[in-house]
Design a protein that fits this description.
529 residues, mainly alpha, five-stranded mixed β-sheet, 22 helices, 58% helix, 5% strand, elongated, disordered C terminus
């Protein structure tokens, strides 16, 4: 029972009780079963530890993780220096041309602006430490408010549960803040703060093009309430739906943002592997998943085991965690990019599932049981933290050098007319070229489907040229694509062979990473973007 001294001196946090009502927390014997007595101190220490770990991972390499981060930090810089609504004319032959452009990470770019003062690469890396640390801290806050014993220890488990998860969280992309938003939504769902979901969903739409996931979280909560206590709770989903609708309608790029959703999500949902949109949209092999996320799977299975040891029905918070883990697990088996979510929700589900058992052991005086549980958790953390830190650092060290294409981009800027269009042989070269050179415009970037959706015939022609299937491609490049310069990496050997045979493609630059050709004849096109 709670002592009078504790009841008088300690505020009672509002938590979700079984049946869906908010109720004051109670202490079931030992101090560990109620939320931390010093949340500010605990939160500060935990956040510092998270930042330290993520910094050690992030600065294992001077490079940014992945390709898109170069685009994101440069966009934030341009928004700061040239205005919020950029006249985006760098991808004229895609659905992101100047007339249709939608910044589908608008709020993320706004949040990156404070990191654009000084070295952009360093700023992006600092953001890639702080943003996931905030997401992990929100995880701790969720568990703490649900009275999960050892909430800070469970949160530290995020650092070891999946090397692939840490890798994705270390990218200068919006997924870490997306995870934070989903966790906050879950917390407000469980604590009955449903009206706050409206502004959260509103800004989530502005943050990330994966905004439908917040609807899935609200929907999972509604199903969990129905399964656990028979109540059909529709209002939270309605609040989230209202916030999403307002976010879409009151949007800086309305109404183009509505059409962009169709162009962006349609190909991924209907045919996620064609054309090639990057490895993140493909599933992991089973052996890969077991290797890089084995502890996440073990956490999920341990949660299932804990449910089998319960002597009461599963409550709504745990049921929501189970449904979300199953949902994100299914999505992970379809596409590896959802490793950004599954480990976190699997660990949260395990924490919620084990929490009633640990509190019951404490109340019954079974100290040895909860000592074994905390000892086991601590041992797993201590044994796996160094190895996961090393594995995460090694995965980042495999990132491509940030200097890649820097000199080639500088040559283009110095030797070509402003706005002149560059034909690339690979769509994912755009972020680095854009990072170093906004003087030129480009053919395709960010996602190959953006060109395919703009002009399928033109896209097919681009593929044919880049794969070396078009004889004397200079005329087509000039007349159909309006480009007088060609940029290619050295891996496109078939194209390079055709270019060597084309007298109107003159090599004007070469280094260890790239070759630049100038189209010298065979076109009346101006080549401007």
């Amino acid at each position: 029972m709670r002592s009078r001294k504790y009841a008088a001196s300690t505020p009672r946090p509002t938590v979700f009780a079984e049946g869906g009502q908010r109720a004051p927390s109670t202490t079931l014997g030992l101090r560990v079963s109620h939320p931390d007595q010093y949340p500010l101190l605990t939160g500060t220490a935990l956040f510092s530890a998270l930042v330290l770990f993520l910094t050690a991972v992030q600065f294992a390499t001077p490079n940014l993780v992945g390709n898109d981060g170069y685009y994101h930090i440069k966009m934030a810089y341009l928004m700061r220096t040239e205005g919020w609504r950029l006249p985006f004319d760098w991808l004229a032959l895609t659905v992101l041309n100047a007339d249709r452009f939608v910044d589908h990470h608008f709020l993320f770019h706004v949040l990156l602006i404070p990191f654009t003062f000084g070295d952009l690469r360093l700023g992006a890396k600092m953001a890639s430490v702080l943003f996931p640390a905030v997401a992990f801290l929100s995880f701790w806050w969720l568990l703490r408010r649900q009275r999960v014993p050892y909430a800070a220890l469970w949160t530290a488990g995020l650092l070891v549960v999946s090397e692939a998860f840490i890798y994705r969280m270390s990218m200068p992309r919006a997924q870490s803040l997306s995870l934070a938003a989903l966790i906050v939504a879950w917390h407000w769902l469980l604590t009955g703060r449903h009206r706050r979901l409206v502004p959260l969903a509103f800004f989530y739409v502005w943050l990330y093009n994966g905004f439908p996931m917040i609807l899935l979280v609200a929907g999972a909560y509604g199903v969990a309430r129905w399964l656990s206590d028979g109540q059909l709770e529709w209002r939270p989903l309605a609040y989230v739906g209202l916030g999403v609708a307002l976010g879409l309608l009151i949007h800086p790029y309305f109404p183009n943002n509505l059409l962009f959703i169709y162009h962006h999500l349609g190909p991924k949902v209907l045919n996620p592997t064609a054309p090639g949109v990057g490895s993140e949209w493909y599933p992991y092999k089973t052996t890969q998943l077991l290797e890089n996320s084995g502890l996440a799977l073990i956490a999920f299975l341990s949660g299932i085991l804990a449910l089998g040891l319960h002597d009461r029905r599963m409550d709504a918070p745990t049921a929501t965690g189970l449904l979300l883990t199953l949902l994100f697990g299914f999505m992970l088996f379809k596409s590896r990019r959802f490793v950004e979510y599954f480990p976190a929700f699997a660990l949260a589900f395990a924490a919620l599932a084990w929490s009633p058992l640990i509190r019951r052991w404490e109340a019954q005086g079974h100290r040895w049981r909860h000592r074994i549980s905390i000892g086991l958790m601590g041992a797993i953390l201590l044994l796996t933290l160094p190895s996961n830190l090393q594995a995460s650092r090694e995965s980042l060290q495999r990132s491509k050098p940030y200097e890649r294409y820097a000199e080639a981009a500088a040559w283009l800027q110095a030797h070509t007319p402003a706005g002149s269009r560059v034909f690339q042989t690979d769509w994912d070269d755009f972020p680095r070229l854009f990072f170093y050179n906004t003087h030129n415009t480009y053919i395709v970037g960010l996602d190959p489907t953006y060109m395919q959706r703009y002009d399928a015939e033109l896209y097919d022609l681009w593929v044919e040229i880049t794969q070396g299937r078009v004889e004397r491609p200079s005329q087509v490049i000039s007349e159909r694509f309006g480009a007088h310069y060609v940029f290619t990496d050295l891996a496109h050997k078939a194209f390079l062979e055709k270019a060597a045979e084309d007298p109107n493609l003159v090599e004007v630059y070469r280094d260890d990473d790239a070759v630049i050709f100038q189209v010298t004849a065979g076109s009346s096109a101006s080549g401007s973007g």
